[in-house]
Amino acid sequence: MSDNETRPHDAEAEAELAGVPEDLKEQDTASNELAALRESLEVAKQDVLYAKAETQNVRRRLEKDIADARAYAATSFARDILSVSDNLARALESIPADLREDDKFKNLVTGLEATGREIEKVFGNHGITRIAAKGLPLDPHQHQAMMEVPSAEHEPGTVIQELQAGYTIKDRLLRPAMVVVAKKPD
């Protein structure tokens, strides 16, 4: 087909438009362009809404991460200090009762006890709390059973001795309590 020849469907379209005044043709074209612009505007609005929602979600995640970082920043340091606290408690326990009243040791014992209270106060200020263990049922989320001992006095699965204290920092486990658990006697 040559350029001068008209295609059949083009001829039909031209025939339809031949009877339409020129200003209506322009209005129809403007209406189509307006409809396309409105559609583009709606798409852009949706994109903006999605972008705002995503930005808000990212901001919330970052705020949570920052809050967690503040709350749990001392976790590693706290774990290290627990061994200092344990050693202090062992030192106090190792002093016999008769030496606690001796004038030479009385000031030493008082100083060690004051240091222990200060450590407990600092732990409390930072949300570090001791896990209850003795006399409670074994909780594998907070207790680590080191041994099972036959016992007729206690229910099986009950913690009967605490070998090492356990601690949490805020709502997270810092160190499980190492415990001895009762079992049925043989």
Q: Can you describe this structure?
A:
- The protein has helices spanning 8-18, 22-72, 75-94, 97-100, 103-125; strands at residues 128-130, 143-150, 159-164, 167-169, 172-175, 177-183.
- The chain has 186 residues and is of the alpha+beta class.
- It has three domains: 8-70; 74-126; 129-186, Head domain of nucleotide exchange factor GrpE (Nucleotide Exchange Factor Grpe, Chain A, domain 2, Roll).
- The strands form two sheets. A three-stranded antiparallel β-sheet has the order 1-4-5. The chain has a three-stranded mixed β-sheet with strand order 2-6-3, with no helix packed on it.
- Helix 3 runs antiparallel to helix 5 (103-125).
- The chain is elongated, with a radius of gyration of 39 Å.
- The model is unreliable at 1-6 (pLDDT under 50).
In this structure, how is the largest beta sheet organized? 3 strands, antiparallel
Distance between the termini: 105 Å
In the sheet with the most strands, the strands line up as 1-4-5
Number of helices: 5
How many domain modules? 3
Helical proportion? 55-70%
Number of E-type strands: 6
What is the string of helix and strand elements? Answer: HHHHHEEEEEE
Strand content: 15-25%
Nearest-integer average pLDDT: 86
Shape: elongated
Radius of gyration, in Å, reads 39 Å
Structural class: alpha+beta
Low-confidence stretches: 1-6
Region (Disordered): 1-29
Family: Belongs to the GrpE family.
Main location: cytoplasm
Keywords: Chaperone, Cytoplasm, Stress response
